[in-house]
Structures are given as C-alpha cells and as structure tokens.
Amino acid sequence: MSVGHRVLISHQQLMFLVYTLHFSATELLLPSSLAETGKSGGWMAPLVSFFLSAVPVALMLGLLVRRHPHLGLGALSHHLLGRLPARLLMLLTTLFNVGLTALCLRDMVEAIPVAILPVTPTLAVALPFLLVAGYGAYCGAEVLARLAFFFMVIAVSLFSLVVVTLLRLVRALHLLPLWDQSPLQLVAAAWPTTGWYAESWTFLPLAAMVDRPQYAGRGLIAGALIAAVHLMSCTALSIGIFGHSLVAHFAFPIHALFQQITIGEFVERLDVILITICLLGMIVKTATHLWLAVDAAQFALGLRNQRPLLPALGLAAVLWMLSIPNLPWLFAFSTTVWTPFSLCLGLGVPALLLAASWIRERQYRPPDISS
C-alpha cells in the first residue's frame, strides 16, 4: 500500500523478501561447502550462522527502525552522521549492492547451463536475466515483495514434495555430527553463511518501508530463520542420502537430489523445475540488490531522478561479473575476502548508527526539572 508518495509493505511481506534474499542462491551453492568443511554435521551450520550474524544484525536494524520510523539508510545516516559521512556510506552501500548483483549474475551463469541450457555463452544468459531483474528493480520493492511471496510458497511446497518422495532413502547414520578434527569444524563450515546473513545490513531501506515499524525486526528475524531452517533441511537431506563425502564433490547437490525423484513413470526431470524456481528467486534477489544500489546511489549523488542510474549500475554489475573467472574462484573469494568484509559492515554499520542515535538522544534530551 502507499501513504502519500511513500510505498509501504507489511512485516509479512518483509519476511517473504528476506527469506528470498537469504535462500534463493544458498540452496544451490552452499550444501557442498557445508558438507566439505563440516562433514556429517555440516547441516547444522546454517543455524549457527543465523545466531552469529542474522540475529544481531536484525535486532539492531529493528531497533533503528523503532527509534527512527520510515527513515531509509540515506536519510537516517544523514540525520545521525551528517551530510558527508552519509554520502560516503551510501557510496559504499552502492558498491556493495552492485557487487552482490554481480555475484548473483555469476551464480546464474554457472547454474543455468547445468540443467536447461548447456554450453550457453555467458552473456547470452546474463543479459536477458539482467533485463528482467532490471525491470523488477524499476517496479520497486513492493512488487518484489509480492514475487517473493510466490517464491516462498512454491519453494516450500517443492521441498515438501522432495521430503515425501525421498525420505525413504535417508540413512540416519549419515547425519550423526562426527568430525575428523574437532567440533570447531562446525564453526568453520558456518563461516560462508555467516557472511551471507550479515549482508542483511543493506535491508534497512526495506525495513523502513514496513507499515508498522515495531514489527520490522520481527520480519527480519523470521525471514532469516525460515531461510536458515530450509537450507539446513536441504543440506541434511542431501547428506542423509548421498553421504557428506559425495555431497562435497557435487557442484550443485540439490540439483543432484532432484534428479533422484521419479513419481510413477510419468513425472521425471524435476531438476528442471528446480532451476526454474531458483531462477524466480534469483530474479527477485538480483532485482532487490539492484534497487538498493540505485536507491543508495541516488542519495549519494544527490540526484532527483534515479532512472539513468538503473542501466548504468546494471552495466557495472555485468562488467564486474565478467571479471569473475569461475565458480571455484568465486567461492574462494567469498570465503577469504567477501565474508569478513560483509561481516564487518553487517555488524559495524548498524552499531555505528545505533551509537550515533543514542548519543544524539542524550545530547538533545530535555533537562529533568522535577528535581
């Protein structure tokens, strides 16, 4: 709905959107990493990451929205930090979200040829995908939240079908948390997802759109929790059927999992349906980060019209994506560079804004004349 010129969403829509942003790429890419590092107990790592990064970031964002209702990241940072620091922060936010858009494009370039378009040139996959995501970013966050609802319903329903059809193949002994070194392997396995959930600091403009600000934190936490449980369930099912050693060698374990499904003799190749559903989720994720990048760049550059920014930032994301050589390099970059960078920003930016808010409140608090 809209109030005046401000578009508002409910905290349930925020939950759907946060779930999609956290889950839409992780189900394809992360189970193999979790199995490789965490061994048979790697399926528990998403829940560890949820408590390490998703919960503190969501709590801080929820508190900021409560204290400063309907103020996005740019307006809030300008109010609390001043004009120049706010513009610098929004430039950093722009680069961060353009980087996430580029990573999403690379994920799809790697995933789509596996199932439905083999031996397809990179740009032939990336450009049409970016055009659709760009249109989604142009439509705005409210439309993306509606699409996220459909993605969540379909993704949960499809996974329920997988559980019903493949549960008989699960070997419970494969899921016993046994580590060849120490239980700290679980923390190491949770490292990539910890950085992934820390990216939610950029969701402050989305949380600021919630019609009832007191429920924004609830929507952020609920969306992240459902995504973590879903990823944990997907990884557990993969390890339970294939074993952690085999899952660690799959590029896309969930894709291999769906290839095991046959219903009678007439429903096969559900892996194609999986990729199609993942495509919807990735469109929402890419479009949302592109929308966040445009929103931040508009504030940083002081522009009234954001339309020229959309194609420019989309082109920047494509060029960034082309500089990524392959999936192994991308994973190494994510774990060694992107995750610590994301974690520092995820915990640091909301904490900085909260500290500035508290200091500003104490400075302008009226004196107590009762005593």
Describe this structure in words.
- It is a multi-pass membrane protein.
- It holds the Pfam family Spore_permease.
- One of its GO terms (biological process) is spore germination.
- InterPro entries: Spore_GerAB (IPR004761).
- The protein is mostly helical and about 375 residues long.
- It has a single domain (about 10-340), classed as Up-down Bundle (Amino acid/polyamine transporter I).
- It is about 75% helix and about 0% strand.
- It has helices spanning about 10-25, 25-40, 45-65, 75-80, 85-115, 120-140, 140-165, 185-200, 205, 215-240, 245-250, 255-260, 270-300, 310-320, 325-365; strands at about 1-5, 5.
- A hairpin with a 2-residue loop joins strand 1 (about 1-5) and strand 2 (about 5).
Mean pLDDT: 86
User: In angstroms, what separates the terminal alpha carbons?
Assistant: 47 Å
Looking at CATH, the homologous superfamily is: Amino acid/polyamine transporter I
Gyration radius from CA atoms, angstroms: 21 Å
Integer count of domains = 1
What's the total count of β strands?
2
| Sequence of strands across the biggest β-sheet | 1-2
| SSE succession | EEHHHHHHHHHHHHHHH
Shape estimate: globular
State the helicity in percent bands: over 70%
Family: Belongs to the amino acid-polyamine-organocation (APC) superfamily. Spore germination protein (SGP) (TC 2.A.3.9) family.
Membrane topology: Multi-pass membrane protein
Subcellular location: Membrane
Transmembrane segments: 12-31, 43-65, 86-105, 111-135, 147-169, 189-208, 220-252, 272-297, 309-331, 337-359
